[in-house]
Amino acid sequence: MPHLTESGITNWTPERLPDLSGRRFIITGGNSGIGFEAAHLLAARNADVVIACRNEAKGKRALEKLVNAGANVGAGRCDLLVLDLADMASIRAASAEASKRFGAVHALINNAGVMQTPKSTTADGFELQLGTNHLGHFLWTALMMPQVDQDAGRVVTVSSIMHKFGRINFDNLMMERGYNANLSYNRSKLANLMFALELHRRLEAVGSHIKSIACHPGYSDTPLQSKVGNPLFKLAYTVSNAVFAQDAARGAWPTVLAAAETDAVSGGYYGPTGFFDARGPVGDSDVERRALDANVAKRLWQVSEELVGESFDM
Q1: What is the pTM of this model?
Q2: 177 lies in which domain range?
Q3: Catalytic pick from 185, 219, 237, 269?
Q4: Given 26, 89, 174, 291, which is the most exposed site by the fewest CB atoms within 10 A?
């Protein structure tokens, strides 16, 4: 499988991070797992970090844990923003609040997601996994672009190695027919990667200084697997996590690279580079060729704009 870029970044570790004083990072799903570990790594380099999550109580506990991390957290400010990506009204309210409370955003980190859920819909009637993982972040990013633009910042979209098994079927996009939790998740993560690449192409076409960068955590042990709907999958993840998975802190490295590494390139895709990209040294990662289909990405973009009722102002 091809790499999107050959950025020259190999065997990356957080020790390469510069001082991030004065730079703001907003992380969806920053209250747990990869998101929280990324928040901690960024805060340790003096970044201003905003945890955006739908459960305010869990967000406050995560914020308290982050602030109380002591010497491992630097001099930056840590804040909380309530955001439910499965509800367009919540997304619009959160973006309005972010506009009032926060200034320029160096990196908008689209990390939150749901995985292998039973058939369900968002508040607006979208299939839950595509609606949350892709459409929610699509709308959130569209609304937040002015703040990212203030800092010539970057949009970081977290995909997954499971994008390699995803397919975009416009005739059954919401899986009203033949719902399959695995296929739905894979589709949503392919959509994440295609969005990141199409955003890069559109930004490049207008000469924007904003970067669009994708990443994935490999196979990491996070709370996401414990929330899957199928009990058999949950049991399987318990076993496989213990044997094969890396911890969430290591899984957050590609996200932090994409968000804060000076040499990270727009249009890039970073993650572990070992067997099946599940773990190993972090650098330019493999991408499934379907993700490179610009025609499908363009159509997905247009359909997404129609569904969420919002266009990007480049």
Answers
A1: 0.92
A2: 14-304
A3: 185
A4: 89
